[in-house]
């Protein structure tokens, strides 16, 4: 399996990613405008975002993106391409098409900010370790 990322789109919109601690086991279309009306406010003292999802309080904390990196919001699609070098004669290619560049990443926790050992809070550490390994 190979991966292709097309980052050549010149008109990518700046976006904010909101990582919400919910899992929805549904992959079809959803009329969110009819059933979902998000509300969000910001605490001035801490800079944290407060949002409510179906009555549950969520507290969002901005996550610093690693320096010298670019984050994208992408759509993934799979395709099969001819590959005579493989025994099957084809291979699966994952295509990632960017829909926008992320300028801010906000990770939410239930009733409080994320713990310091959260996978998202460790994003900068992962980048540092990756840079050390690949130097």
UniProtKB/TrEMBL annotation:
Gene3D superfamilies: 2.40.128.680. GO terms for cellular component: ribonuclease H2 complex. Pfam families: RNase_H2_suC. GO terms for biological process: RNA catabolic process. It comes from the Eukaryota. Signal peptide: none annotated. CDD domains: RNase_H2-C. InterPro entries: RNase_H2_suC (IPR013924). This is Uncharacterized protein. It comes from [Candida] railenensis.
């Amino acid at each position: 399996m190979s991966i292709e990322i097309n980052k050549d789109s010149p008109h990518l919109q700046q976006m904010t990613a909101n990582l919400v601690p919910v899992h929805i086991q549904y992959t079809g279309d959803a009329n969110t405008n009819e059933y979902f009306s998000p509300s969000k406010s910001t605490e001035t003292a801490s800079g944290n975002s407060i949002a409510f999802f179906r009555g549950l309080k969520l507290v969002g904390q901005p996550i610093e993106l690693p320096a010298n990196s670019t984050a994208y919001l992408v759509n993934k699609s799979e395709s099969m391409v001819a590959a005579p070098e493989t025994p099957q004669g084809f291979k699966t290619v994952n295509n990632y098409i960017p829909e926008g560049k992320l300028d801010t990443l906000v990770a939410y926790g239930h009733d409080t900010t994320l713990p310091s050992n959260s996978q998202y809070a460790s994003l900068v550490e992962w980048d540092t370790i990756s840079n050390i390994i690949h130097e």
